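S.,

Sequence below, as promised.
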Amino acid sequence: MYQGLPEPPPIGASALPDGTYDGATVFITGAGTGLGKAIATEFARLGAAIVIASRKPEHLEAGAEAIAAVGARCLTVACDIREPDQIAAAFDTAQSAGLTPTILINNAAANFPVPAEDMSPNAWRTVVDITLNGTYFCAREFARRHLDAGTPGSIVNIGATYAWTGGPGFAHSSAAKAGVKNLTETLAVEWGPYGIQVNGLVPGLMPHEDMTADIQSNLARTNDKDACQPAMRVGRPRELAWAATFLASPYARFISGHTLVVDGANWQRRALTMPEVVPVREQMGRPPFTL
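The prediction came back faster than expected:
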């Protein structure tokens, strides 16, 4: 009865002209897995050179293999985005290789489901440090170099819809992503006069092979993920990648300070009669809390 939103074009298709990013370099954090890898690959298909920053050697290797498969140039740099000195060193390495980043994709983040009362202080600090502080430190390094050189640039920060709504089970991540959304809007105003646009991009449910085990276990408790979306299907990683390449492209120069949600309207979904509340602990199959 319901057909939902049509499937997207196949992998490899693009709405942008071939060579849109010829001569551009995209610096992307966490591009060795999942959605980050999909975004990096799409920029590469359109002619960009890619700089992948990650803490994990295996992720750097996986990202490099994906970019090599489409025939683009790729540089990998080991970098913990919680450390500003490491970020500066990563940018120095890119510039020394003749790959001065013109586009920054702040994709790296930390996340895992946990009831707020069970969350350790270290868990809170780690997620906020990577997701919010790391995004700011990378944006700051990128912007300072362009401000000094007098050159334009584009930043895309990957967000989450619970930046608006809150996210039960994700108090650490939702708070950090709310900060990322606000940061996006603030930096767009501050840096717009210098030719630097700053936007946000938010994925909906886009299953991929690199999802962590705890996220996969949560999804496994949902019987029919397609029927839980107004689109009557989940998203495809390439749909987020197409949105990212548009936001950073010459065709979106007057878009700045905006956060684009790519989730088939799922986050706006409301019921006429709200369902019974199921506490987060029960949703996660956890016993009652005890000290």
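Residues 25-265+275-283 form a domain with the Rossmann fold fold (CATH 3.40.50.720).

Coffee later?
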